[in-house]
Amino acid sequence: MKCNVGPRERIARFAIGAGTGIAALTVPMSTWKRVALGAVAAAEITTAAVRYCPVNQVIGVDNCPEGEEMKHAERDAIAEIRGAGI
What we know:
Layout: H1 7-26, H2 31-50, H3 54-59, H4 68-84
């Protein structure tokens, strides 16, 4: 997967995800609003963790610094090798 979430955007996504997750758990609101906030929190934290956002790809935004993609490609290759039992 191509990296398109940069370091600053990643921090912002974690912060937004944590904030909306805490709000979903603590602020009194209707169930559907709580579920919606939880979904936003999960999406933000997930995109920050994997450093890929499909919305960024659709709108043509790539904040990943040069050289980061190589690190991710190496990590993915190592994971495949470990998964294959080699």
